[in-house]
Amino acid sequence: MTNPCVYFSLFYVVLTLCIVFPPPEFKSAGLTLEAIFQKWLGSENEMFIQYHVKRTVMNLFLHSMVPFGYILGLEYVRAYTYANVDDQLLPTWSFSWKIYVAVATLIPLTVCILFFWWFPNLWKNHPIARKLSVYSNPGASWWTVASDINIEFRRVNKISIQSSSIVRVVATDNWVIKITPYTLDVAHQSDTALILSSADVHQWSPHINDNVQFVNIEVKPTRQNAKAFKIRLNALDLKDLQNRITRPITVLENVRVRRSLIDRFLETFADEVSKNPVFSTTEELESCIGCMQVTANVKLRKLCEDEIAHRDSCSNCYCRPMWCVDCMGRWFASRQEKEPSTWLSSKCSCPLCRARFCILDVSPVVQA
Fold it and tell me: Which residue ranges traverse the bilayer (predicted)?
């Protein structure tokens, strides 16, 4: 029969990993430290910096208690297992186990001493406070910078990218922030260089014929005493980050960033549409009703040789030009099956009148 201590050890290791590196199932069920201690932490959206100061303190203390918690749990299991055994027959502590107990006890005590050094003057010595103080004006408190970040984080135009189970990247109007379990890395966009230094490709699964690319971006502030840091993102999230920040991301010559499947399809879709006969019109063209950013530039009309014989055949569309080629391409792709190799030869229905069309029926629009 297997010793119950072995079962407890395996359970404790798995539970610890799920708490330190919470999987999506734990997050959705609210079984994370942030969710459990939400009342004490407060609202991240209202007080972003204060929230993460408390969060980092909480994580550091609870994670430091993991070795000591294992001792308490294991001793409880041992006491329960040998409840009816004479004290002289109980297993004795080995020298290595005594060393482990001593170290496991010293770790949380050391962390508590560290907290006493951080706490005075409203966490003035906390690592987050020291990083923000680099950006404060002479004679001003780091809370001034914290207040500015709090205000920007409340705005709806920020982006938040979950780069891993424990790391998140936030970009506001003026700041790039990397959120890690024990601290925050911050950089003001006005004096920061972003360099995409490397990229690596990984396969999701041996049974799935698709790969995912991750890019590594070096964030290098030029401000004195500001420390550089790295962020690692899925290549599909790179465009979202580029759209939010004001600084360009420099890509090194030896790095090739893969574009998303939809971006590659849109380029091919636009190229194929440009080969079709143009549609000339004298009416004034309005903005695309899909994106409202560019003028409508495509018209659906039956040009292919598909005979009208069954319900899946192409048919005439009598809608006026109302879409741009990108929005029409996104609509076309969204109505296709999961196999991308068949998209160009497939058909779709008009977003308004539901007339069937293929890519040969999409004409570029020119004003006469």
Answer: 6-23, 57-77, 97-119
